[in-house]
Amino acid sequence: GAALSSLHVDKLWTSHDAQGEWAHFFHHGTSYKKKIKRYTTVTQQAGTSTRPVIIMHLTMPNIDGTYAFSLANRSHLNYPVLIGRNVLDTPGSDLRVDVSKNTTCKP
Question: What one-character-per-residue DSSP string does 21-76 give?
Answer without folding.
Answer: EEEEEEETTEEEEEE--EEEEEEETTEEEEEEEEEEEEEETTEEEEEEEEEE--TT
